[in-house]
Amino acid sequence: MTEILNEQEQQVGQLxxxxxxxxxxxxxxxxxxxxxxxxxxxxxGKWEISGADGEQAGVLRSRLxxxxxxxxxxxxx
Length: 77
Description:
Blueprint: E1 2-5, E2 11-16, E3 24-28, E4 34-39, E5 47-50, E6 56-65, E7 68-75
Antiparallel strand pairs: 1-2, 2-3, 3-4, 4-5, 5-6, 6-7
């Protein structure tokens, strides 16, 4: 599990990468409720995030910052 932070560095959720061998991810809210699912298309370098209705909600990308991974999210709806 990895914290999801907003622009003010406040925790707004958690990212569960499931396992090192999985190309799927889950996103949980502050209270631990499952909000979104994501998948990692082959060679894309990003996760496509979908809501409960199956509609794409955004794109999640990882980035390296001071020898630790951080993630940025671009909302599409």
